[in-house]
Design a protein that fits this description.
Blueprint lengths: L2 E3 L5 E5 L4 E5 L5 E5 L7 E5 L2 E4 L6 E9 L1 E7 L6 E4 L5 E5 L5 E3 L8 E2 L3 E3 L4 E3 L2 E3 L9 E7 L10 E8 L4 E8 L31 E8 L9 E10 L6 E7 L2 E8 L4 E10 L6 E3 L16 E3 L7 E9 L6 E11 L3
Parallel strand pairs: 13-16
Antiparallel strand pairs: 1-8, 2-7, 3-6, 3-8, 4-5, 4-7, 9-10, 10-11, 12-27, 13-27, 14-15, 15-18, 16-17, 17-18, 19-26, 20-23, 20-27, 21-22, 21-26, 23-24, 24-25
Length: 336
């Protein structure tokens, strides 16, 4: 095995697809291993043997011996199977002894949550206390809610964390999110209550309101991969249209209009058709899970070799209606 000493310069090593770096540090010796681009690897090996990888993509690793001398090698690992990682640390498949890759689904960063995001009805805000909502299906305890500019809240229109949520109100906090940028709902730590200001407001109608916004990193899907999504939603039973949408980049890949129902689940697949920039999916008005419909498939051209945003959107036609995004999953099924 090659050796690097503490007196040697930093060593940069390219790790091919399906291979791994093995460090053997004898007693009294130590080295630091890092990935210099995205810092997904950062470890010190002292008096031990440690393996880094194998990886699903070529990865550059740096070795710096900090004490004594250590041995290193690059090659395939002789084990039955191990996880393959991309350069961002995502598990993308299994690697067998031959180095062959078996792809497996994985959830990109921020791609799953079950913390409610609500487009509520019109209401009243008095010193940060929300009231007079059209009754929600349950007392959520805590949820993100969208308020328009007319609500006179400190950060303007956008999503606010609301604590102590009952079916008709709650306490608004200063925790704020603008979902036009990447946003996955979370529970804020130590949220601060708003104790002054606010106004009676009329909820925004006839406009798309982004409830969650997930970044799908470029190249994750591959030329023959797919993006699989699932969501749970609630809304009130009324004659007004409640529109639930899903958008990849700027393409509306799913739209469902509800009125007198009260909840639904929707599953959807977007497939790359032999190219990272050629995609097919059910049409905006066809069933997401199964079924025969009278509309052609959507054929779109979104370049998934580049990072793209996947957004969950709500729209109400009547200001006394509401929509709740109860939870969602965005999952990548990679295939080169």
């Amino acid at each position: 095995m090659p050796t690097i000493k503490s007196t040697d310069s930093l060593l940069a090593i390219n790790i091919p697809i399906g291979e791994a770096l093995t460090i053997v540090a004898p007693a009294g010796s130590s080295c630091y291993v890092s990935e210099p681009v995205k810092f997904v690897v950062s470890a010190t090996v002292t008096g031990a043997t440690q393996t880094f990888g194998p990886y699903a993509n070529n990865v550059l690793l740096n070795i710096q011996c900090t004490a004594g001398a250590v041995n290193w090698s690059v090659g395939k690992i002789n084990i039955a199977a191990t996880y393959a990682l991309d350069s961002s640390g995502n598990v993308t498949g299994l690697v067998g002894p031959s180095g062959s890759l078996a792809s497996m689904p994985f959830i990109p960063n921020g791609g799953q949550a079950a913390i409610p995001v609500i487009l509520p009805s019109s209401g009243t805000i008095t010193n940060g206390v929300l009231s007079a909502l059209t009754a929600l299906p349950t007392a959520y305890g805590g949820a993100w809610m969208y308020f328009p500019a007319g609500a006179s809240l400190p950060s303007g229109a956008g999503l606010y964390w609301v604590s102590s949520v009952t079916t008709t109100g709650g306490n608004i906090t200063t925790s704020f999110a603008n979902a036009s940028a990447a946003f996955t709902p979370y529970i804020p730590s130590n949220p601060v209550l708003i104790t002054s200001g606010g106004a009676s407001y009329t909820q925004t109608t006839g406009a798309d309101i982004t409830l969650a916004n997930i970044t799908v990193q470029g190249g994750l899907m591959g030329a023959n991969g797919a993006l699989r999504t699932s969501k749970l939603c609630s809304h009130n039973n009324s004659a007004g249209n409640k529109i639930h949408k899903e958008v990849l980049s700027s393409s509306n890949i799913h739209s469902f209009t509800a009125s007198t129902s009260v909840s639904f689940r929707w599953d959807l697949l977007v497939r790359n058709a032999g190219s990272q920039a050629v995609n097919i999916c059910p049409s905006s008005i066809s069933a997401g899970t199964s079924g025969v419909v009278g509309t052609n498939l959507n054929r779109i051209n979104i370049d998934t070799s580049q990072a793209q945003q996947y957004t969950f959107i709500g729209q109400i036609a009547v200001a006394t209606d509401y929509i709740v995004l109860e939870g969602f999953t965005v999952e990548v099924l990679p295939r080169a």
